[in-house]
Hints:
Blueprint: H1 7-21, H2 25-41, H3 55-66, E1 74-78, H4 84-103, H5 106-119, E2 123-129, E3 133-138, E4 143-145, E5 158-166, H6 167-173, H7 180-189, E6 218-220, E7 227-230, E8 236-246, E9 251-258, E10 262-268, E11 280-283, H8 297-323, E12 327-330, H9 337-344, E13 358-361, H10 368-385, H11 402-412, H12 414-441, E14 446-447, E15 453-454, E16 463-467, H13 477-489, H14 495-502, H15 507-523
Antiparallel strand pairs: 1-16, 2-3, 2-11, 4-5, 5-8, 6-7, 8-9, 9-10, 12-13, 14-15
Helix pairs in contact: 4-12, 8-10, 13-14, 14-15
Amino acid sequence: MRIPSNPDERESFYLDLIQKCEVSKEERKADYTVLRSYYLFGADPEAPPAYFNKIHPHLDQLTSFLYSAETTRFSIQLGASVSPIEHRKAPSLTSALNDEWLNSNADQVFSSALTWALVFNSTFIKLVVNKGIHPYMVEPGSIGVLREDTPYTDRQEAIVQTYYITKSELYNRLYSHPKRDSIVKRITTSQHSKTEDVPEGIDRIVMSQSNPTIYGNVNLDLFGMNRYKARVAEDTVKMYELWVWNDDEEDYQVVTMADPDIFIYDRPGKSMFLKGELPFVQVCPNPQFDYYWGQSEVQRLIFLQQLRNHRMTEILDLLSKQVNPPKVFTGFMGITDEKAFAFNRAGGQVSSDMPGAKVDALAPAMPKELFEVIHEVDAMFSEASGISSVLSGRGETGVRSAGHASQLARLGSSRAKKRALIVEDSLEKVATLYLKLMQAYDNTHFLDEEGNKFIAEQFTRDFVVKVDAHSNSPIFTEDLRQLAFNLYKAKAIDQESLLDLLEPPMKQLLKDKLKKRQKEAEANPQPEPKGKQPQPKAE
Length: 539
């Protein structure tokens, strides 16, 4: 994309791009509000919460099958032409990458991002470099792209993020800005800093350069509109961060501005992140080929939840009528308020001089079909997830053995595996950016397998970061265990490699004990047992 060099044309160009990127933003945010409410409460934002919200545990279970923060680990694969020297550096960098992933809390950030991606349709992991690598989840309501018909972030020529920041923090960031006074004056006189302008939902988070913060408290009203909505006590400023591809520089141009049109920074992407790279990675478990945002898992389940809510209301209504059924009074001259109260009070008594006076209760019958509908809807929830009853631990009728169950699990997990691989791709993109950022900003000295010192920058660029052995998903766990034991039985791997594949608790301690035993065995070799003497052949 060609960016105008004239300052006035340049600013108009940026403002026009922001408007184009946000063409569907308000419509999508309205949808996200509804989807969020169904995930949290099983009902529309204006309706009372469901008696039982089936969507929430459904998504929690699905998330646990698609991503396991405890077991996910990465490996570095090198190109065919990479020298053996680089191969010797890979193990220590792999260990450092996995440590950085855990230490920066990326495992938990990604887990949250995946859950909310299932709720909405997409979320984003944004990496910020500020005395280390800091990952943040960014909700889709604060992101806009130029081409929504292109389902690839790296093919977007422009992408914009909106966020809110307190005035005091913005003023601190502008401390060394050459136009600080004029910018502060324009922001002070601008009419966009009212607290009530902060959007509702999870995108109300006030973003900081180093930490996301929420100022104020969260109000909870389960029967109204105010459900988990943050109230910001300080004046805030709406900010835009626009990333535009610059053909002349072969890099992104990053524009920071305050609403409505206060330009603060216009700088190359390499000064903030990596040359030619975006800091955003989309997490989209249900992608569509012609729609950038993908499909919401909750959207698929809303009708089922509505049907369940309707049937549960009918069941509870019938139960109430059975407990306190309508009554027919025969032979009474009239029912006063006092008599009606006595009839409905426990132990109440009413006398009548009329012959044949009686009270009949008209308790309605409970159709068993109502409960069958509930069971059928619950089965539809399981079918929608692609997770079979064997995988979820509920068992399956007609299963004859452990081998039979294992076979059913493999056959019934194909849909879930497909989505797990999609999630795995997002993980690998984030981890690849991690390693590239380590090469650009980390001066830590590492040791290769021969004890030589090096820094990450001295490592080859010809690499690919992969999720090691599909460790992101427990769906693949049993397959991996079987493969590991088969390789060990075939003597293709040693005991240490077996431990690496199995990832047991206290793995490093077990490996240290194994090495200790091996050294002791080498120092004190045992004599080989004498074999049987061959018998002489009969003449």
